[in-house]
């Protein structure tokens, strides 16, 4: 397995992405100088607290996918008509394109019970991955999964039950994650409110994190989730995107590639809830496709995550035996310690983003 | 009543905000030159199709407000625990601060069945008000109302009914607006699918607009909506914000001012569903506060909106009799025609934003 410890930048261009702490201050400064030359308006040090103004070529938002649904239980209120057509299954996409976009487009796909907010300003107010990647030359696309956040759900079945036209059992399986049970899932500690030693998640700002959590309809949606065909449309539009998933959405990029490989340059699955199953799934969609499965710290101490890590190890081995280019990395293996399941919000989040930039430069170089 | 037709910029600085079509090309060019000098990275022409790179000093997102709720019906799924604590009532806020922020912070508050997407890229792919105002020197804050979009709702009552622990009647009054009944509410025409003559809404891209619509929980929330105290907190944090509402949220800035005037520099109510009621509401919170109530076109042809316009006219007159500085403007009165209820997305949306910038310069000048 490839390890960040032994990597050396093959070109000057790939160096900024490799300035993890383990690589030392000298390399970080060299990388900073290269990046300062290459990327207009962006800082080069991963965790620069005052990065200065950001110049972007273009920003905006749009929807991908979607399906019209006609219903006569859209409302139970006298002021709003019950019958009409709505659109569901589309995904909301917000993007920023840097002036010097020398790197490929990234699609950031959040996990369970969360929205695209996952990748924005951290709970303790530091720069999110969304801005970091733009500052480092990646066109960056942040989505809300279908039926989540700014991507519409339908209240039709709720109103059918409220109006007495359907059984309560038919209500959607929409749930929220309480912070006490979620604590161990996010691996802040073994159980609420215990904390793993040297934890990098900014627990002093946990209140702001809990506010990010929203109701999750995914258990009431078909498999694959409607987000998957929408991601496929988006990747084709971007002509070569790196799909970066997290947790619940871990399987989505793999399902997207199984649907259609075109437009997908690489897959980065951050702490996926599941990898494809070599015993059931066709592995040919992953032949020659750069794939990174990335986990944080304390995984072996987690009854929830240790089996998922093991399952993904099995997938990576099987995919490579079938001609794949898959890697599985635990951050402690490359000298980065203390990371929770929410590693894109941990105190060293930008060091990880910086390391990930280097992985993309090496495994999926170029722009779209 | 003050009319844009007779306005002249009192300082050079206020000129860019006044380049509405009625003011002519010469003024637009003069305004462009001034703005180019004053605002780094931003275009000055309202509807420039290729505005060039945008330089911002800072961007990010955060939450304001919020309340912890303990529940034992957060989930009916075996994989997720039913009991725990979640946070609701907070509002999601996304902001961008221009490098030369010589104008006051704006808070953009969307209306019924929509989210902050309202103010972003228009359905036909043009620049949204969110970016226009940043390019013109306003720190700009876009929110999702409480229980909408990226601001969490609670599924607890849905799951209580699904689990047989509560009556179907107790389900929340959450609704979606079907496009056919919404057509006349948005004043695209008198009824679906008829279109008012010279309509400025980009109906060729209406599919993208319908995808913006999400379920609306407001009828199941207390009055005032939890968005209101959160707006108050936000305004105080911004030390002098202009609160810009739309439609359903029209009453929120007035309720916010009634709660606490500090932090509120001005109110702009775009096509409000309601203005304060002089027969019931205390008007003293509005004394000396710059207030603009702004309506588009075809209002008299709308049985839904004509009475609301009349009600707001009554409020403006009463507020001014009580020492207020309120104005009500119909866009046709200042030479801007063809606007729907979604005037921030109409084809002339940036001309209206430009005119609004001028109103703010005149009535609520300075920065925070």
Question: What is the name of the CATH architecture of chain A?
Answer: 3-Layer(aba) Sandwich
Task: Name the CATH superfamily assignment of chain A.
Answer: Alpha/Beta hydrolase fold, catalytic domain
Structural class of chain A: alpha/beta
Distance between the termini of chain A: 28 Å
Give the CATH level 1 class of chain A: Alpha Beta
Overview of this protein structure:
The structure is a homodimer of 368-residue chains. In chain A, helix 7 (252-259) links the parallel strand 7 and strand 8. Chain A is α/β, with parallel strands linked by helices and 368 residues long. In chain A, helix 6 packs across helix 7. Chain A has an eight-stranded mixed sheet, sandwiched between helices. In chain A, strands 2-3 form a two-stranded antiparallel ribbon. Helix content of chain A is 25%, strand content 17%. The first copy, chain A, is built from nine helices and ten strands. Chain A has one domain: Alpha/Beta hydrolase fold, catalytic domain (Rossmann fold), CATH 3.40.50.
Outline of this structure?
Chains A, B: This is Esterase. Helices cover 25% and strands 17% of the residues of chain A.
Blueprint (SSEs and pairs):
The structure is a homodimer of 368-residue chains.
Chain A: H1 24-38, E1 54-64, E2 67-71, E3 84-88, E4 91-98, E5 106-109, H2 129-135, E6 140-144, H3 156-162, H4 179-185, H5 206-210, H6 227-238, E7 241-246, H7 252-259, E8 264-270, E9 290-295, H8 306-321, E10 325-330, H9 349-363
Parallel strand pairs in A: 5-6, 5-7, 7-8, 8-9, 9-10
Antiparallel strand pairs in A: 1-4, 2-3, 4-6
Keywords (chains A, B): Signal
Signal peptide (chains A, B): 1-46
Organism (chains A, B): Methylobacterium tardum
């Amino acid at each position: 397995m490839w390890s960040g410890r032994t990597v050396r930048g093959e070109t000057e261009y790939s160096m900024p992405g490799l300035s993890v702490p383990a690589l030392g201050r000298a390399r970080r400064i060299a990388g900073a100088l290269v990046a300062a030359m290459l990327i207009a308006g962006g800082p080069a040090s991963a965790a620069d607290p005052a990065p200065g103004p950001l110049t972007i070529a273009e920003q905006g938002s749009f929807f991908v996918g979607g399906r019209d649904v006609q219903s006569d239980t859209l409302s139970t209120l006298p002021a709003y008509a019950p019958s009409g057509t709505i659109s569901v299954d589309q995904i909301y996409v917000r993007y920023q394109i840097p002036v010097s976009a020398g790197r490929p487009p990234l699609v950031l796909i959040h996990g369970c019970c969360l929205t695209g907010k996952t990748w924005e300003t951290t709970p303790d107010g530091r720069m999110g991955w969304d801005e970091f990647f733009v500052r480092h030359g990646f066109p960056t696309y942040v989505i809300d999964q279908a039926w989540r956040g700014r991507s519409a759900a339908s209240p039709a079945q709720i109103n059918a039950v409220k109006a007495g036209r359907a059984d309560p059992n038919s209500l959607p399986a929409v749930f929220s994650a309480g912070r006490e049970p979620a604590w161990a899932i996010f691996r802040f500690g073994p159980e609420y409110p215990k904390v793993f030693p040297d934890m990098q998640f900014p627990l002093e700002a946990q209140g702001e994190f809990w506010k990010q959590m929203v109701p999750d309809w995914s258990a009431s949606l078909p498999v694959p989730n409607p987000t998957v065909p929408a991601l496929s449309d988006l990747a084709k539009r971007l002509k070569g995107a790196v799909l970066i998933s997290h947790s619940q959405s871990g399987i989505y990029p793999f399902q997207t590639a199984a649907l259609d490989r075109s437009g997908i340059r690489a897959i980065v699955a951050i702490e996926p809830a599941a990898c494809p199953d070599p015993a059931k799934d066709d592995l040919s969609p992953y032949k020659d496709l750069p794939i990174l499965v990335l986990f944080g710290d304390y995984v072996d101490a987690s009854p929830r995550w240790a089996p998922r890590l093991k399952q993904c190890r099995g997938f990576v081995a099987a995919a490579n035996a079938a001609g794949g280019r898959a890697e599985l990395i635990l951050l402690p293996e490359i000298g980065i310690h203390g990371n929770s399941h929410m590693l894109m919000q941990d105190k060293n989040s930008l060091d990880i983003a910086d390391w990930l930039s280097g992985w993309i430069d090496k495994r999926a170089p170029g722009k779209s």
